[in-house]
Recover the amino acids of this structure.
């Protein structure tokens, strides 16, 4: 069972939206995340994490976590399956090689 969330999704969405709007209005000004975090009662690093995650999910930042994670998980599963099949094929090759080797020694 996952741990309960400390912050409701509405607060996360509101915080991300506020940071984006303030950055859009004042692009060169620093401290936006800290100010919004203080207004909402959220630690600035937590809010910064939410904003980065939302930016990546929106494609505004490289490395979309959802797309990359899904793609990586699928590739890892495929790799594991190929390793398993390769192991089976190697074992079968050894088995057939020993059977063929035994067949040569037998008189026909």
């Amino acid at each position: 069972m996952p741990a309960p969330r400390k912050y409701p999704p509405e607060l996360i969405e509101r915080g991300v939206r506020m940071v984006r709007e303030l950055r859009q209005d004042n692009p060169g000004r620093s401290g936006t995340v800290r100010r919004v975090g203080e207004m909402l009662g959220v630690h600035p690093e937590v809010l910064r994490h939410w904003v980065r995650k939302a930016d990546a999910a929106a494609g505004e930042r490289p490395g979309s976590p959802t797309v990359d994670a899904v793609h990586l998980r699928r590739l890892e599963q495929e790799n594991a399956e190929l390793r398993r099949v390769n192991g089976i094929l190697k074992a079968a090759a050894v088995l057939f090689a020993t059977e063929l080797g035994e067949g040569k020694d037998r008189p026909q």
